[in-house]
Design a protein that fits this description.
This protein is α/β, with parallel strands linked by helices. It contains 9 helices and 15 strands. The strands form 3 sheets. An 8-stranded mixed β-sheet has the order 7-6-5-4-1-13-14-15. The radius of gyration is 18 Å and the shape is globular.
Length: about 260
C-alpha cells in the first residue's frame, strides 16, 4: 500500500555536522519513490529560499510542507499559504529589541534580525557562514512572512510565549533557537492539506523527526519515528526510536518496518 513518508530536514535528513544530506537517507528516498511511495519534506524552513533551495533540489521530494505548515507545495504548485500578521511581526520585533533577544528572518541572502550578534555567532559556529549582509529588521515589515526565527536560550523563548500567547516557539533539538509561528500552526496541519490533495488518511503517513516542531506530526502519523538524536519529549511521543542521524537512522527506521528492502 502506498504511503506518504514525511521527513523533517534539519538533523533528520540534513546533518549539521557534515553539512550534507545523509547519503543513506537520500538513497532510501530514491528507493521509496521507485517503489511508488510519496515522499514529503516537512520542515520549519521555507525550502524555496536561497539557503534551502539547494537542499530541496538534492532531495527532490514529491511535496513540501514549509514553515511548519504555513506553506504547502506539490511540485511547482502552491496549495496552501498563510502569513503572519504585520502588526504581530512589528510587536515581536519591538519586544525583542527592548528585551535583548534575537528575532527576525532572512530576505533572500540578507539577514534581518534584532540583536544580530547571536545569529552571526551561530552561523559561523554551526554552518561556517561568515561575512553575509545584515539589514535593519524593520525591512521585514515590507514583506509577507510565514514565520520568524528566534535564536537564544529556552528561558527567553518561554518569555516570548508568555508575552505573546498567539504564537509558540517550538525549540530546535539543540535548544539554542526556535521557530516563531502561530499557536495553531504545525507540520501536521500542513500534512492534512497533503492528505486531502492525495486522497489519503493519517493511517497512510510515516513521519520522521527530531525536534519539538515535529511533535504534532509524529503523534498524528500512523507510524511516528523519532531519530536517536531527538529531544526526549519527541522520543516519548513516537511509536519507534531509530538510530541517530550520524548512524543512518532514517534508513534503519525504514528497514525496521519493511518500507525499504535490505
Amino acid at each position: 500500500m502506498r504511503k506518504l513518508i514525511c521527513f523533517d530536514m534539519d538533523m533528520t535528513l540534513y546533518d549539521h555536522k557534515s553539512l550534507t544530506i545523509t547519503p543513506s537517507a537520500l538513497d532510501a528516498v530514491r528507493r521509496l519513490q521507485r517503489e511508488g511511495h510519496l515522499v514529503a519534506v516537512a520542515t520549519g524552513r521555507d525550502m524555496d529560499n536561497d539557503f534551502s533551495r539547494p537542499l530541496a533540489e538534492i532531495v527532490r521530494p514529491d511535496a513540501i510542507v514549509h514553515c511548519n505548515g504555513e506553506k504547502v507545495t506539490v511540485g511547482d504548485q502552491k496549495i496552501r499559504e498563510r502569513f503572519l500578521e504585520k502588526d504581530l511581526i512589528k510587536r515581536l520585533l519591538d519586544y525583542a529589541e527592548k528585551a535583548g533577544f534575537s528575532i527576525g528572518s532572512n530576505l533572500g541572502p540578507v539577514g534581518c534580525f534584532t540583536h544580530r550578534e547571536r545569529v552571526i555567532e551561530r552561523e559561523e559556529r554551526v554552518f561556517g557562514i561568515r561575512g553575509r549582509e545584515y539589514r535593519d529588521p524593520g525591512e521585514l515589515l515590507n514583506h509577507d512572512l510565514y514565520a520568524l526565527a528566534f535564536f537564544g536560550e529556552p528561558w527567553q523563548a518561554k518569555r516570548i510565549e508568555e508575552a505573546f500567547p498567539e504564537v509558540k516557539l517550538p525549540l530546535f533539538a539543540a535548544k539554542e533557537g526556535a521557530d516563531v509561528i502561530r499557536r495553531e500552526a504545525s507540520k501536521a496541519e500542513g500534512i492534512e492539506v497533503l492528505l486531502e490533495y492525495y486522497g489519503m488518511g493519517w493511517q497512510d503517513v510515516v513521519a520522521f523527526g527530531d525536534s519539538m516542531n515535529d511533535l504534532e506530526m509524529v503523534r498524528a502519523a500512523g507510524l511516528g519515528i523519532a531519530m536517536g538524536n531527538a529531544v526526549p519529549a519527541l522520543k516519548e511521543a513516537a511509536d519507534y526510536v531509530t538510530a541517530p542521524i550520524w548512524e543512518d537512522g532514517v534508513v534503519k527506521g525504514l528497514l525496521q518496518f519493511g518500507l525499504v528492502e535490505p
